[in-house]
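Bench log. Compound arrived from synthesis this morning; before running ITC I wanted a structural hypothesis for how (2R)-2,3-dihydroxypropanoic acid sits in the protein. Inputs:
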Amino acid sequence: MSKASVFVSRLIPQDNIDELKKHFDVEVNYEDKPLSKAELKQKAKGRNALLTLVTDAVDGELLDAAGRQLKIVANYAVGFNNLDLAAATQRGVILTNTPGVLDDATATHTFALLLATARRIVESDRYVREGKWKGWAAMAFLGLDVDRKVLGIAGMGRIGSNVARKAKGFNMRLIYSDLRRNTEFEQQFGAAYVDKETLLRESDFLTLHLPLTPDTRHYIGEKELNMMKKTAVLINASRGPVVDEKALARALRAKQIWGAGLDVFEREPEIEPGLAELDNVVIVPHIASSTGETRLAMGRIAVNNIVKVLNGQPPETCVNPEVLKKKS
Ligand code: DGY
């Protein structure tokens, strides 16, 4: 009997690919750039499973192009705003993500952005490299203290609470907002549950850990930036469209807030014109979960899900669980 066929849309760790190859016929887009819609549709045709990345739009058109034998799309990310859940459920295709294994890496990266922004690490590094440093100066690159400041967390899921845990090392005072209140977390971390306006007005550092949904699009816009302290720093390692990037660029230019640390952008890989010219923003290319160990662990979940589903078992994770009910 011929092996099931799997297409991997971009480069992932070779160990993960080798594991897939033990079970299936595997083709990988080793070029490591997103395929066009037409290319992806053509590659998906006849596959039993697809392993996709955040740069791939998985919609009804792609699923139809793949064909009725497609059983699973394993998305190599915890976020799944690139997947059309309804279209997949309607066609009986299981969609999976990679939760849990990237919380530490993403929360650590959130702190790296926070510290780099507060202590002007990137700006001062550039200054030294450009040969501008002429000697020690008491007033050079004055930054912000982090210890004992108020950290506001929007979205207290796995990553938000991991950030909170790390913030305790800096004795930060924690406030958070979320759709659901978590009293256990409040007791454990001495965190206060607040409404959005209080979060905006009181945070010295505001970090976003919200999934991208129609409700969270532009969660931070002009109105919200106006409510923040002039000394506040905004950190976004969730999804770009959660912040109105145009409004943020304006606020940073006008020094309406002190700074921002951004891992994600509204129209990746494009950056809002003018943003990159500002010194009070740290910009990195969507790498919050990018450590060797984490990437491997993400791959293990995706591969395991494909192996399970193609062997008739339920996956380890699933973002459209209704499809499993329909199948059982
Ligand atoms: C995720 O997992 O959602 C990241 O943004 C991509 O690694």
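What the model suggests: The pocket of (2R)-2,3-dihydroxypropanoic acid is lined by residues 54, 77-79, 102, 289 (CB under 6 Å). The radius of gyration is 22 Å.
ITC booked for Thursday regardless.
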